[in-house]
Amino acid sequence: MAGEEINAFELFKEEMDVDEVSLKVNAIHRLKTVVLWLGPIGTNEKLIPFLDTLVHKEEDEVLFAIAEELGKICTQITNKLTLFPILEQLCGVDETVVREEAVKSLIKLTTCVSEMDIQNVFAPMVIRLAQGEWFTARVSSTSLFRSAYSKAGSFKDKLRKKFLDLCNEENPIIKRASSKKLGDFAAIVEKEFVISEIIPVFKSLSGDEQDQVRVLCISSLISLAKCLTKEENQRFTLTILLAAGEDKSWQVRLAMAKNFPQLAKAFGKDITDNNLVAKFSILMKDVEADVRTAAIKSLGECIADISPEKVASILLPTLSSLLNDSVAGVRSALSEVVGLIAVHSGTALTKEKLTPMLSELIKDDNHDVRYGVVKSIMGIAKVGGPDVITPNLLAGLSSLTQDGHWRVRLGVFEVCSKLAQQFGREYYAKNLEAIFIKFLSDMASAVREEGIEQLRLLVEEFKSEWVIHSYLPKMNEAINKEKQGYLYRMTALNSILGLISVLSKEQLSQHIVPILAKSGKDPVPNVRFCVCKIIKKLLPQLDPSIVSSKLKGLLSELCEDQDKDVQYYAKVALNAIQLLFSQSNFLSIHTQARVVSLI
Question: Which long-range contacts (CB under 8 A, 24 or more apart) does 431-439 make?
Fold first, then answer.
C-alpha cells in the first residue's frame, strides 16, 4: 500500500459521497489538484461529467464552491468550452450568491477563449439565459451582455435587442437587474445605437413606478453620460438627471446626492456649473436629513469641478443656512466639508465666509461637529495663512482642550502642532503655546501620548534653543505642580525622549539630568521606575562622567527601593551603564594598543 499512487479523482469522488457539507466544500476547493492529476483528457472525460451530476443534487454551499473554483481553474483546463454548460446551469439556480459567483466565473472565462468561441458558444448561451423560463436565469444574463457584445459579431443585434427586452420586462426583479447594468452595457455599444435604442429605454426606466428602478438609473446614468458629448448630454440625458433631483422618492434624491461627484465628472464642468449646481443646492436643503447629509459630503468630493463663482454665489449661502440645522449629522458633515471647500475657494472667500462658519460650529453641542471643525481648521489655514485663524477660532480651540470627548482634544493638539509647523515659532509662542502645552495634563493617556508625538515634530522644527527656553520651563512646571497626579508627571518625563535628537551632551547634562535626578526621588514608585527607563534610553547620548557622578549613585539607591518594579528597572539601567563602561574601556585599551604598536 505504501508504494501505491493515490488516485486523486477517486478520492475526490469518495469525499463528495459523505453527508457533511463542509467536507464536500473542502473537497471542491481542491479541484486544482484533481485537474493536475487527471490531465487534459481525464479532466474532460471524467471530472467535467462528474461535476455536471453534482449541479443537480448538491446543497447551495457546494454549488457556490463549484462556481467559485471553476473560475479559478479555467486557465488550467485545455478545453475551456466544457465549463460553459455547468456554469450556465449554475446561473439559473435559486440561490443569489451562487448565481453571482457563476456570473463572475463566466466573465473570467470569456477572457480565456477566442472570439470565435464567444460567437459560437458564449453569445448563444447569454441569449438562452435571457430567454429562460425562470427569472433567475434572466437576471443572471443581464450581467453577461457586456462581456459578450464586443466580440459577438453577427450576434450583436440579437444581444442588443434581447437586453432591451429585459429592460422592458414586467417582472420587477428583472427590471431592476437590467436597470443596474444598462449603463455598463451602453459603454460598449456603438453610439448610434446608444442614442437610437438605449436612451429611449433609459428614459422609460427613469420614470418607472418602482423607486428602486429609478435609483439604479442614477448610477447607470454616470456610464451613459460618459458615452455622449456635451451637446448630446444636454439634448438627451440632462433633463432626466434634473428630474431626479425633484423625484417624489427621497431614495432617488439620496442616490443623486451620493453620486453627484461622479455625475459632475461625467457631464463636464460646463453643464455642472450652468445646470447642476443649482439643483444640487436644493438637495442640500432637502426635507430629508439623509439627503442633506449626503449632498454636503458629496460637495467635498466634487468641489474641484465647480467654479469658485458658483461656490460663492449659490453653494455657500445654502451652507450658511445649515449652520443651525436641527440634525447633528448634517452639521457634522458641514463642519468637515468647510476645510475641503477652502482649498479651492481662495483666501478672500475663506476669510470672509468659511472662517465665520467654523467659528460658529466650534461652539456646537455635538462632539462630532466640534471634531469636524478641528479637522477643517487645517484646510482653511493652508489657503488663508495665519490671518484666517481668528481670535474666536483660537479661543474655541482653547476651550476644546477641556472637551468631554478625548478624540476632540486629541485633534486640537494635533492641529496646534501642524499650525505651529506651518506658521513658525513666533506664531506658536503668541497664539498656540498655551493651548498645546495642556496635553501634559490631559486625562486620557491616548491624548497625552499623541501630544508627545506632536511635541517631537515641533522639536525637529524649532530645534534646541526652543526646547531649552520655551518647553523645558513648562515641563518643569508640570512636574513640580502641587497636587499634580503622578500620571502627568510621567507624561512630562516621557516627553524627554522626544527632545534628545536636538540636544547636545552638554545640554542634556545641564538641563535634563537634574530633572531625572530629582524625579528619581518621587514618592510614587511608577515615577521612579519611569526615570530608570528613561536613563537607560538616554545613556548613549549622555557624557560618561555625568552618568558616573550623578546617575549611577541614584540607580544604586533605587536598586534597594521598597518597590520591586523600581528595583528591577533600576538594575536593568545599572547593568546597561556597566556594559557601556566596559565597552568604552575595551575601546580605549584597544586604541592605546594600536598607538603603541605604531610607535
Answer: 431/386, 431/389, 431/394, 432/394, 433/470, 433/474, 434/398, 435/394, 435/397, 435/398, 435/401, 437/474, 437/478, 438/401, 438/413, 439/413, 439/491
Q: What is the mean pLDDT of residues 525-539?
A: 95
Q: Number of C-alpha atoms within 13 angstroms, CB side, residue 338? A: 37
pLDDT by residue (tens digit) across 569-592? 999 999 999 888 776 553 444 444
Q: Is the dihedral of CA 42, 48, 51, 52 positive or negative?
A: negative
| pLDDT-based confidence at residue 79 (cuts at 50, 70, 90) | confident
3-state class (DSSP) for residue 158: helix
Q: Which three-class secondary structure state does DSSP give residue 183?
A: helix
Task: Tell me, yes or no, if the pTM score tops 0.85.
Answer: no
Please enumerate in sequence order all residues whose Cβ is within 8 A of that of 394, keeping only pairs 6 or more positions apart, or say none.
Answer: 431, 432, 435
203: CB partners within 8 A, 6+ apart: 240
Specify the pLDDT at position 593.
43
Q: How many residues does the chain have?
A: 599
**Integer Cα distance of 82 and 74 in angstroms:** 10
Residue 595 has pLDDT above 80, yes or no: no
The cell for 446 is: 491616548
Of the chain, the percentage scoring pLDDT greater than 90 comes to 74
| Residue 482: per-residue pLDDT | 66
Cα–Cα distance between 225 and 199 in angstroms, integer? 10
Helix (H, G, I), strand (E, B) or coil at 212: helix
What is the reported pLDDT for 393? 94
Q: Is 268 left (phi over 0), alpha (psi -120 to 50) or beta?
A: left
Helix and strand numbers (H, E) in the chain are 41, 0
Contact assessment for residue 164 and residue 197, using Cβ atoms and an 8 Å cutoff: yes
Residue of 205, 151, 208 lying closest to 182 (CA atoms): 205
- Which of these, 530, 524, 374, 363, lies nearest to 447 by C-alpha position? 374
Whether 238 contacts 274, CB under 8 Å: no
Rg (CA), the chain: 35
Amino acid 588: pLDDT:
47
